[in-house]
């Protein structure tokens, strides 16, 4: 039996749809219940539902063989997991945003983000020294109330930025969801994992 860590939230529905397209028979309770462990005996699979940032932790520790994680999380976390497949779902990008026309504070520029590693690497590469302020969500709030000059966050439709009067200033990286695997589990269960990869890969080009 393979254990797969699934990210709760916006990626979840697309990931379930992709598995169903690959002909995995997932019961209705999958998208309806609040259970956090769902076993699908017929498919020899067990799913655990975790916060997106925690999926890599479950896979790294080997309690899940596989996981579905956004490239944003993989860039931020840099964990000991292999990336097997770009699932090409939940497409979005990481960007720098701020209030239109607002300059960076020259003495102590501040950047608010849920992605402190991605943000500090990016600004270092730009040769800009900034203070990173870590937030857990609603990042767009930070420039509105004067906590930061810039934010680094995910942009999907661009609606959150627009409705809060912010503009995208720089694009950092494209993001899609990836299938990740625990390296030891990959060595042990290579056959079963390769079959899963093949079935998913076969439905990706249709999308
Ligand atoms: C994400 C991201 C942006 C928003 C972007 O937040 O942090 O706030 O979605 O989407 P959009 O471009 O389609 O508006 P999420 O809803 O995941 O919640 P969070 O604020 O708790 O991070």
Automatic annotation (TrEMBL):
<feature type="domain" description="ATP phosphoribosyltransferase catalytic">
    <location>
        <begin position="51"/>
        <end position="201"/>
    </location>
</feature>
<comment type="function">
    <text>Catalyzes the condensation of ATP and 5-phosphoribose 1-diphosphate to form N'-(5'-phosphoribosyl)-ATP (PR-ATP). Has a crucial role in the pathway because the rate of histidine biosynthesis seems to be controlled primarily by regulation of HisG enzymatic activity.</text>
</comment>
<dbReference type="GO" id="GO:0003879">
    <property type="term" value="F:ATP phosphoribosyltransferase activity"/>
</dbReference>
<dbReference type="InterPro" id="IPR013820">
    <property type="entry name" value="ATP_PRibTrfase_cat"/>
</dbReference>
<comment type="pathway">
    <text>Amino-acid biosynthesis; L-histidine biosynthesis; L-histidine from 5-phospho-alpha-D-ribose 1-diphosphate: step 1/9.</text>
</comment>
<keyword id="KW-0808">Transferase</keyword>
<keyword id="KW-0028">Amino-acid biosynthesis</keyword>
<comment type="similarity">
    <text>Belongs to the ATP phosphoribosyltransferase family. Short subfamily.</text>
</comment>
<keyword id="KW-0547">Nucleotide-binding</keyword>
<dbReference type="InterPro" id="IPR024893">
    <property type="entry name" value="ATP_PRibTrfase_HisG_short"/>
</dbReference>
<dbReference type="InterPro" id="IPR018198">
    <property type="entry name" value="ATP_PRibTrfase_CS"/>
</dbReference>
<dbReference type="InterPro" id="IPR001348">
    <property type="entry name" value="ATP_PRibTrfase_HisG"/>
</dbReference>
<protein>
    <recommendedName>
        <fullName>ATP phosphoribosyltransferase</fullName>
        <ecNumber>2.4.2.17</ecNumber>
    </recommendedName>
</protein>
<keyword id="KW-0067">ATP-binding</keyword>
<keyword id="KW-0963">Cytoplasm</keyword>
<dbReference type="Pfam" id="PF01634">
    <property type="entry name" value="HisG"/>
</dbReference>
<keyword id="KW-0368">Histidine biosynthesis</keyword>
<keyword id="KW-0328">Glycosyltransferase</keyword>
<comment type="subunit">
    <text>Heteromultimer composed of HisG and HisZ subunits.</text>
</comment>
């Amino acid at each position: 039996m393979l254990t797969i860590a699934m990210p709760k939230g916006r990626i979840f529905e697309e990931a379930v749809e992709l598995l169903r397209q690959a002909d995995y028979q997932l019961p209705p309770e999958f998208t309806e219940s609040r259970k956090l462990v769902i076993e699908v005996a017929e498919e020899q699979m067990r799913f655990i539902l975790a916060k997106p940032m925690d999926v890599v932790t479950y896979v790294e520790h080997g309690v899940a063989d596989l996981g579905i994680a956004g490239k944003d999380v993989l860039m931020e976390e840099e964990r000991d997991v292999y990336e097997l497949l770009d699932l090409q779902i939940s497409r979005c990008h990481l960007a720098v945003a701020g209030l239109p026309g607002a300059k960076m504070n020259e003495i102590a520029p501040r950047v608010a983000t849920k992605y402190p590693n991605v943000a500090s690497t990016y600004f270092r590469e730009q040769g800009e020294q900034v203070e990173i302020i870590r937030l857990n969500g609603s990042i767009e709030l930070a420039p509105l109330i004067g906590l930061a000059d810039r934010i680094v966050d995910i942009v999907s439709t661009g609606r959150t930025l627009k409705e809060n009067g912010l503009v995208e200033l720089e694009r950092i990286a494209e993001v899609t969801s990836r299938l990740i695997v625990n390296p030891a589990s990959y060595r042990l269960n290579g056959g079963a994992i390769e079959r899963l990869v093949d079935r998913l890969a076969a439905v990706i080009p249709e999308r």
